[in-house]
Amino acid sequence: MARNGSGTYSLPAGNPVTTGTTISSTWANSTLNDLSSAMTASLAYDGQTTPVANLPMGGYVHTNVGLATVRTNYPSAGQVQDGTLTYLTSVSGTDTITATAPISMSAYATGQVFRFISAGANTTTSVTLNINSIGAKNITKNGTTALAIGDIVSGSIVEVVYDGTEFQLTSLSSASLLGSNNTWTGTNSFTNALSYTTTLTGGTGIIAIGTNQIYKDATGKVGLGTASPAAKLAVVGTGYSPNITLTDASTIAWDTSTGQTATFTFVSTNRTMGAPTNLVNGAFYALAVIQNAGSNTITWDTVFKWANGTAPTLSTAASAKDYFVFRSDGTNLYEQGRSLGVA
Fold it and tell me: What is the pTM (predicted TM-score) of this model?
């Protein structure tokens, strides 16, 4: 009868034998055949037999199991915890990425998750991943959105999930995760530079830095050092244009975008002041001219417009200082004031 369906084995009829009873071939053959059937239906420890139904463990575990080497093995808890079954090695390429999975497979399956360390930052928006030479599949983000350049950071851990068509990147950098149409609340910090291609807009205090160092109210007024700007631009504290030094040359160049306040000191003899570049309509500019040994002159470009139409005569003393203030219309510089021979 072998086992009874609950795992209990009972000897066939005629057992146990009685002392002094003659052993008959009927009893022996029946008993031995039953034992043979029971042993055949049992699992051999060397793996010769295969289960034909589920094997309930009754709350017990298999111990000291080996590591899974093919997809039909079950893994050890260590392999799962260590992530070795999903960790790709031999990674190469930045836009056309190839890698090796620890267990051979013949096709990708929806839901597969893989991780790897990138060999470099992606330089294009068309990035593919080919695992075990199965075939290259696109890597996208947020569904089917193509990656932005630099979404994969060099040397970073990259995690992808196969969705049945492509690998979706789940390990997005903070810039990529932002996407579009975001509303930031509370305190936000950015490790790297925050760049954007469209208008950065918002309500009260959206560009506040520190304690009201830069502040924008709901009407668009901006305050520097104040949270209550009374004008389009209100500055509480000191605002100034740092002085720049103009290089001595036969024709002196002044790029006003680098400084509205400039100083020129003679190194050689008489010079020509060229037309300043990047003038802004309505802006004020200040120029200091300093003699060296003295008696040097400047020939002024025609964009300089002087009070009463007469250019100034520079002070001639050694190290003499002359100061001029101009207002610009974007093309010309109109004298607003002069102080000659200041000492």
Answer: 0.50
